[in-house]
Write a structure and sequence with these properties.
It is a single chain. The chain is 41% helix and 14% strand. The chain is an alpha+beta fold. The strands form 3 sheets. Strands 3, 4, 5, 6, 9, 10 and 11 form a 7-stranded mixed beta sheet that branches. A hairpin with a 2-residue loop joins β1 and β2. α1 runs antiparallel to α14, α9 crosses α10 and α16 runs antiparallel to α17.
């Protein structure tokens, strides 16, 4: 175990944080690639078609190195995190797991993930700094290999923007003005809605503004959920909801789908995966939408976007074949053939920079026939992704967000109070778990 990453046990967990020293998990003994006998690995993943991608490994590099991988399909999100932790407590976790970036601190703090920096260090060059940093937690350790990314973008009905004489907003001030201008010209329509049923959207918007929700001071956690950047984002959206400039209804409902499909809602702040959602939600508007960079807070500053979604491939501390598992994780997420298969079979947007254009992403999504350079623009936007800052109880923060902001949006009440509730619940949970929290 490297000496520059000290452990600090707290409530059966290990303190880890972005921008601070952290646990470096010590993996089990390895008799993987390069050993005398064949190795069999188990991989928990929710990505569609992952078994087909893994077949490429088993018939190619895996067969050569005598490393066979078996995929076991899992649910995603908190359900999988809970299952991994339960298995780890019994020392029966699989060799590899798919983990969302925001789940990594929770898994690492429970000593469930191995530090694979010595095995995957060369993969760093395949990714942008912001993406790679999410798997290092700001330390010298590496806890996973990035798989897919969710850079945020602005989607809008190009035909209706033209009809109502609207310009694509380049700043958030322009975004607000556009929402108000649309209301004056077409009172029955909304530029977009503020939705609290997917916490990742708000987290990505705060990330773009420069928020760092979890950091450390020495050996203490510091929760920045109510920092100036996040207050600015909350105040902006709360103000638009209160004045009625945008809608306040949740996403992913039949009513929301209808609003998109009929042109009642003419724009959506989303991520690179939005075409798939729009294909289902608004099938009658295919070819009428366009994508642009997310509006900026500073018109003269460096362009930056947030991230909504994305996952990685990690090796568990229970694995007896850390080297072999890390070799597979690197191949899966950096090899051109593997990445092309992930795009084709799993529908992901790869985190590896070289795979974001050309090959399987050489042509625009079928839903965007009018924007042939869709993925070229997406790749340029992805390079501006701000670093994330996650902690060991993201699930608690997200749950409170849905409740507090859901109520605030519905009642058009103070978003600031909702934000403080989110912070207070997160801090209280950290203390309950035994973590020390800075004021």
């Amino acid at each position: 175990m490297p000496q520059n990453t000290p452990r600090r046990l707290a409530a059966a967990a290990v303190t880890v944080a972005l921008g601070a020293t952290a646990l470096t998990a010590c993996g089990s003994s390895d008799d993987g690639a390069g050993s005398d006998g064949p190795v069999s690995l188990t991989y928990w993943s929710w990505t569609p078609g992952m078994d087909k991608v893994v077949d490429l490994w088993n018939k190619g590099p895996g067969k050569k190195d005598r490393i066979d991988v078996t995929v076991k399909k899992q649910a995603s999100g908190d359900t999988l995190v809970t299952k991994i932790l339960t298995a780890h407590k019994a020392h029966k976790a699989p060799d590899l797991v798919q983990a969302e970036y925001q789940a990594l601190p929770t898994l690492v703090s429970n000593d469930a993930l191995a530090d694979i920096s010595s095995e995957v260090g060369e993969a760093k060059s395949a990714y942008t700094k912001g993406i790679w940093q999410q798997t290092t937690l700001g330390t010298d350790a590496v806890y996973a290999v990035p798989q897919d990314a969710g850079p945020m973008m602005f989607y809008y009905r190009a035909d209706l923007f033209k009809k109502y004489g609207l310009k694509v907003p380049k700043t958030w001030d322009e975004f607000a003005d556009t929402a108000r201008a649309l209301k004056k010209k077409a009172p029955d329509k909304d530029l977009t809605t503020f939705s609290a049923n997917d916490s990742g959207l708000f987290a990505g918007l705060a990330q773009q503004a420069g928020a760092r929700w979890w950091t450390t001071e020495g050996e203490k956690w510091k929760v920045g959920i109510d920092d100036a950047a996040t207050r600015k984002v909350a105040g902006f959206w709360g103000g638009l909801v209160k004045e009625g400039a945008i809608d306040n209804q949740p996403m992913y409902t039949p009513a929301w789908n209808k609003a998109l499909n009929t042109g009642k809602q003419i724009a959506w702040v989303s991520a690179v995966w939005a075409p798939g959602t729009l294909t289902t939600a608004a099938p009658d508007t295919k070819g009428k939408w366009a994508m642009a960079p997310l509006p900026q807070w500073d018109a003269k500053g460096k362009a930056v976007t947030g991230s909504w979604g994305g996952s990685s491939t990690a090796v568990t501390t229970d694995s007896e074949h850390k080297e072999a598992a890390a070799k597979f994780a690197t191949w899966l997420n950096t090899d051109p053939e593997a990445l092309a298969a992930l795009v084709k079979e799993g529908g992901i947007y790869p985190a590896a920079t070289d795979a974001q254009t050309g090959g399987a992403l050489a042509t625009a999504p079928a839903y965007f026939p009018n924007q042939p350079d869709f993925y070229e623009k997406a790749a340029a936007i992805a390079k501006t992704t701000a670093p994330g800052a996650w902690g060991p109880n993201v699930n608690v923060a997200y749950t409170t967000f849905k409740d507090a902001f859901g109520s605030a949006a519905k009642n058009k009440s103070d978003f600031g109070a909702a934000l403080r509730a989110m912070r207070d619940d997160t801090v209280a949970d950290l203390k309950k778990q035994g973590f020390e929290v800075a004021p």
